[in-house]
Amino acid sequence: MDNLFVSGTTVATIVVGIIIAFFYLRYMWLVLQRVSKTLDDPDEGKTDGFRHSFVGAIIAVIASSLAIAAYGFAPHFLYIGIILALASPVAVAYTFRRELDD
Amino acid sequence: MDRISLTANSALRPGAGIASEVLLGVLLLALVYYVKVKLVRNTKDFVIANRKVGFGFGVAGLISIWTWAMAVMMSAAQTYSFGLSGLFWFTVPNGLAVIAAIPFVRKIRTLMPDGYTIPEFVKVRFGGNAVAGGVVVLGALFGSLIEVVINIKGTSLVVSNVFGVDPKTAAIIGLLVVLTYSILGGLWASITTSALSTLLHTVPSAIILVAALHYAGGVGAVWHSVAAQGGDLLSVTGPDAATGFGVTLALGLLTATIAGQEFWQVAWALKKRDVSRSFFWAGSWFYPIPICLGLLGLIGLALHVDLNSQLGGDAAAIGPYLVSHLGLPTWLVILYVIVILSACYSVIDSAFTATSSVFVVDIIKPLFPNISEKQLFFWAKVPMFLTAVIAAAVILTGADFVTIVLTSYAIRTAILIPLILALFWSRTTGWGFVGGTILAIAIGMPIRSVAGELWGSFSILAISAAVPLVIGYLRNLHFDFERLRQVKDAALSSAPEALSAE
Q1: pLDDT for res B499
Q2: Cα–Cα distance measured from residue B101 to residue B104, given in angstroms and rounded to the nearest whole number
Q3: Which residues contact A40 (CB under 8 A, 6 or more apart)?
Q4: How many CB atoms lie within 10 A of CB B390?
Q5: Number of domains making up chain A
Q6: DSSP secondary-structure letter at A41?
Q7: Distance, in angstroms, between B138 CA and closest chain A CA?
Q8: Smallest Cα–Cα separation from B262: which of B408, B438, B159, B443?
Q9: A48 Cβ contact list (under 8 Å, min separation 6)
């Protein structure tokens, strides 16, 4: 079993990953069902709602640059990429959740 | 680090490789079947998802559409080749290219809310100029074809390297899998399967990297081994990566998003309010994928993997090589292959859908304006099949792949600035657009072959900008952008009763 699941850290990552995947798939499924029921609803009168793309772009670029640069600071910063890879589906699941609320 | 031995996993046989390709396809097919039954009723649903893609599917779909197989492997390859500066120059422009598309997709959606394709926009913008339309149709179809070919090559590279499957067999199986579900669901299939793929790009990548770092001796051993090699490998400021590939890659990426039908079709398929924020979130949350998978390149450096003797001279093989030789359990190796395959599949299905919308809106509809909805729905699927056949022919016959890549690159790069001018500068004329594009290719490509990619790209961009600007100033004609707003919804029927869901 040790070899199959590699290490305690790997097991922890798998558990966290399964939890994230569960919520991701749940929200994705709920949105899919909702889309099928609202397919012919009009999309009138609603304008593009995001106004902070320029500032957001700068922040995103700086943050990603810092994440890569941090790899060079110390060994444990190598985990940043792994944490971000787990954060990414959390963020996407949040967008599904937001879509359900809209 | 010297105690780590890299040996092939003997459990990885061709049958497992083919099974991975097919099983992923079956999973995606199950999702697409639901989508087909519930969401795809007519041509408009098929090619533009009835403009009902929301925030969640928009973000998830865009992330995966942008995550090419080569992007997954190249993040590790550039880190392995240049250290952290390679990862920096590969990753940062990648996410930025999606975010940089926001002003353009927002503009086009505002100006032409009922559009479908770039050629459609160009034809209306330039009063039906057939040459301008033709050039852009050619660029869009070539661009999509090349995306299919590159990603199917990625499929065969990984499956053959890891499992020893014949590369051509792996490519054909991959093509058949994607073609099957794409023909069923069109853009809805592409968006929903891509959303699932985004999950497959992220969580499995994290698990694989944690395990790979463990087998490589832990983060401390990896980091200190790379640090001991010196040469700025752990610095993002090394100049070699920027001059070696960074600047030209950044230009190519911007061209791919701003002038790519795959992105414009999503912009038109999104609900109006979700366009900008979807592109922004997608660009931002794409970053973790290459940042995470780039770690494989650092592990390769730490373990002193030899480019020629162990990777066959191809740095892109560093990821597949390490994952299959570090001693990881077989299920993790298969999981890695699924990460790559899902990246391949999501780009290919998006490219298939792009060919479908261009073919229907810019070729079939103008030729047969009174075509019935049922016939149009049939013809929407034909270009997917044709693209798959041509891609298979390129792979099987070993046709001149380089020429296709160069042609596609040239057309897309040459179109970039004329397209931007067409969107934002009312004095841009059809002949300025055509002249800029054609002269940029005719003069810029020879410069590229003599002076290299960097100067070639700059030449193409400079010429493609100068010609429409000069002609625009000389002609002094002003286009009324309101005319774009009056464009009808390509007369595609969106009536629910047009076709049953079968």
Answers
A1: 42
A2: 5
A3: B50, B496
A4: 17
A5: 1
A6: S
A7: 31
A8: B408
A9: B106, B109, B110, B272, B273, B274, B275, B276, B277
Integer CA distances (angstroms), A16 to A10, A22, A75, A83, in order? 10, 10, 22, 10
Length of chain A: 102
Instruction: Closest CB to A78: pick one of B202, B223, B286.
Output: B223
Residue B53, strand partner residues: B270
Same domain, B224 and B297: yes
Q: Tell me which residue range forms the domain holding A57.
A: 2-36+52-101
Q: Which of B161, B51, B22 is nearest to B109 (CA)?
A: B51
Which residue of chain A comes nearest to B32, CA vs CA?
A: A32
Domain count within chain B: 2
pLDDT tens digits, one per residue of B286-310? 999 999 999 999 999 999 999 988 8
ipTM, two decimals, is 0.94
Residues B343 and B72: beta-carbon distance below 8 Å: yes
B135 neighbors B415 (Cβ within 8 angstroms): yes
Q: What is the dihedral of CA B188, B193, B196, B201, to 10 degrees?
A: -130
Encode pLDDT of A47-77 as tens digits.
776 667 778 888 988 999 999 999 999 999 9
Residue B12 has pLDDT above 90, yes or no: no
> Strand, helix or coil at A5?
helix
Domain enclosing residue B463, as ranges = 418-489
Q: Tell me what pLDDT residue B288 has.
A: 96
**End-to-end Cα, chain A, rounded Å:** 45
- Work out the pLDDT band at B436, boundaries 50, 70, 90: very high
CA distance A53 to chain B (A): 6
Q: Residue B238 sits in a domain of what CATH number?
A: 1.20.1730.10
Same domain? For B188 and B106 the reply is: yes
Query: Is residue A79 included in any domain, yes or no?
Result: yes
Region class of B293: left (phi > 0), else alpha (psi between -120 and 50), else beta: alpha
Give the B window 89-128 contacts with A, CB below 8 Å.
Answer: 91-92, 95-96, 99-100, 102, 106, 109-110
Residues B250 and B288 in one domain: yes
Q: Which of A88, A96, A98 to mutate to test the interface with B (most CBs of B within 10 A)?
A: A88
Share of chain B above pLDDT 90, in %: 57
Question: Is the domain of B194 the same as that of B142?
Answer: yes
Nearest CA of chain A to the CA of B482: how many Å? 17
Q: Do B91 and B118 fall into the same domain?
A: yes
As a whole number of angstroms, the distance between CA B198 and CA B192 comes to 10
